[in-house]
Amino acid sequence: MKLSVVILAAGQGTRMRSKLPKVLHTIGGQPMLAHVIRTAQSLAPDAMHVVYGHGGEQVRAALSELPVQWVQQQQQLGTGHAVAQALPDIAAEQTVLVLYGDVPLTRADTLQRLLAAAEGGALGLLTAHLDDPTGYGRIIRDAQGDVIAIVEHKDASDAQRRINEINTGMLAVSGARLRQWVAGLDNKNSQGEFYLTDVIAMAVRDGVAVNTVHPSAIAEIMGINNKSQLAELERIHQLQQAEALMTQGVTLRDPARFDVRGELSVGRDVVIDVNVVCEGKVVIGDDVSIGPNCYLRDVSIADGVIVQANCVIEEAGIGAGSRIGPFARIRPGTVLADDVHVGNFVEIKKAEIGQGSKVNHLSYVGDATIGKRVNVGAGTITCNYDGANKHQTVIEDDVFVGSDTQLIAPVTVGAGATIGAGSTISKDAPPGELTLSRAPQQTRKGWKRPVKKKKA
């Protein structure tokens, strides 16, 4: 089957009350239109056409990396008019699949069944039964149960509005048939628009079978028109991802309090606590534990890592057996080797830390290279910024840095050196030696602490 997909994404989305075009609002960290395009991609179509209108250049710029042909609908005159804009680039012998850019959770297997329903010259139509069909076009069937028409809610009679089988708008049919029917549409309805749904009656008139299929879940056909619906589908999407991860063996302490906003790959025996957010591309190895309230973005976490509560890790690599947190921040450009400890209230930025090293308390390490088996004491700071430029700090293997130390970059601490607590190191410290800088301790005998005068 030669396949062309047409995705209608021209709506303004006024009910979103946002300057952002509706189809760019995100589900799971990705624009809803991107979800539709990627699902369509899985069907291996010969071409994908996205019909855009409101905020079109913004939509195109946001999704420029995706392999689609952009088709502009300058005036929004209805779904039939929108499809007509794409038809000149679609061959008559191709099957056309019509999808919607604001319906992001349709499954590929449902669309495959829809395409199968269009085989043999038929028209495949995706319909669903809703407890409350208000606002949807109703499926009209004859006494034999065959579809004969679709009536939009605003044009439906009271009896027709009691029908709970609704049109989702998604259909599949040959390009030749669709071109013929779309050319015959008129806008004699309450909205003054060219309805794509009117092609159903034309198919019946021309003796073309209308074969209906139904989605596996109602969420597959739910469109987004306001922020409430956006939030509802976000939760559905997140629960779907959580279910998939648990099927793989991941332990989620509460699937309802876990978000994936990108691509997550996990190993065996992974435990993830509540309120963890994964964004971008996150890779987690075997036997990893992620504590509550953690944020991970574009990170790779090797086997056996423990990330304790309230940590932020971005664009970093964490080596096997390392221990992070609680309350640690690992910033972009950081690479931790195996068995590294980064403790509470520690910030690491654009640094490489060697195997077995520890930065356990209240420290900042930025623009640094730290060797193996280094101990960085509490309150240590690499002073990497001089107000204009960033400079490197190098700490070689087996160094002990005492608490409350400032390392003023550029500076190198040689292998095996010890830095005394409370030091400010502005020159290279030689290997194997004790280096410190302290003012002599003084005691002033007889000194009295000031006291407040008593009020009269």
Helix/strand layout:
Blueprint: E1 3-9, E2 26-27, E3 30-31, H1 32-41, E4 47-52, H2 56-62, E5 69-72, H3 79-86, E6 95-100, H4 108-117, E7 123-129, E8 138-141, E9 147-151, H5 158-161, E10 165-174, H6 175-183, H7 199-205, E11 210-213, H8 227-247, E12 251-252, E13 258-266, E14 271-272, E15 276-284, E16 289-290, E17 295-297, E18 300-301, E19 306-307, E20 312-314, E21 317-318, E22 323-324, E23 329-330, E24 335-336, E25 341-344, E26 347-353, E27 358-361, E28 364-370, E29 375-376, E30 381-383, E31 393-395, E32 400-401, E33 406-408, E34 411-413, E35 418-419, E36 424-425, E37 434-435
Parallel strand pairs: 1-4, 1-6, 4-5, 7-11, 12-14, 13-15, 14-16, 15-17, 15-18, 16-19, 17-20, 18-21, 19-22, 20-23, 21-24, 22-25, 23-26, 24-26, 25-27, 26-28, 27-29, 28-31, 29-32, 30-33, 31-34, 32-35, 33-36, 35-37
Antiparallel strand pairs: 2-3, 6-10, 7-10, 8-9
How much of the sequence lies in strands comes to 25-35%
Largest β sheet strand count, sense and barrel closure: 11 strands, parallel
Helix proportion: 10-25%
Provide the residue-averaged pLDDT.
Answer: 95
| Strand order across the largest sheet | 12-14-16-19-22-25-27-29-32-35-37
- Kindly, what is the distance between the CA atoms of the first and last residues, rounded to a whole number of angstroms? 99 Å
Give the beta-strand count. Answer: 37
From the helix content, strand content and strand pairing, which structural class follows?
Answer: alpha/beta
Count of separate DSSP helical elements: 8
* Unreliable residue stretches: none
Radius of gyration: 31 Å
Gross morphology is: elongated
